[in-house]
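Hi Prof. W.,

I finally got the Peroxiredoxin prediction working! I wasn't sure whether to trim anything, so I left the full sequence exactly as given:
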Amino acid sequence: MTLPIGATAPDFEAETTEGKIKFHDWIGNSWALLFSHPKDFTPVCTTELGALAKLKPEFDKRGVKLMGLSVDPVDRHSKWSEDIKETQGAAPNYPMIGDTDFNVSKLYEMLPASTSGDPLTRTPADNQTVRNVFVIGPDKKIKLVLVYPMTTGRNFQEILRAIDSLQLTAKHRVATPADWSQGEDVIIAGSVSNDEAKTIYPQGWKEPKPYIRIVPQPK
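And this is what came out:
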């Protein structure tokens, strides 16, 4: 079982392709996306790292820092980066953790606490549970967890959509419906009473059922 939503994201120190970092200090007052990979030079992850590099401006716009992870050493990440640029058209433009002691993978409950040994002798299948996405808020709490199998590439447009929802609902007392995207109507949170809602939304709301109160997205 992975860490639950609402838990404090474990802090750690790690070597990355951009030097040593202390995770909470690196996040600072930003949001963060930590996404993990079972092994360098794997096909699906190669496409994901390239796709995320191309989308980095979209994450920057939302104030979200990107951090990758693989249990292989940092020098292998650098060599892998060359392949990613050649095959995907963009190399990683964000730091990648070399989790050679499995410390971060264990802290985030992606590998059993008993995991040990030389990461280079492990196969992708040995690390197949290291396929998570964690979205972490400025308060260092985990806001979203996605876990993917090795054979299914991640949908970063969906991750951006979810971050839009997380950031909106952190600022306003609303929830977003199924398939919501930026600019569409939202739902008044259940924690807001009708009397309180009248002061927040004096123009009223649509109410197909008493528990579904629909308003335009707050600015």
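Residues 147 and 203 are 41 Å apart (CA to CA). Does that look reasonable to you?

Thanks,
D.
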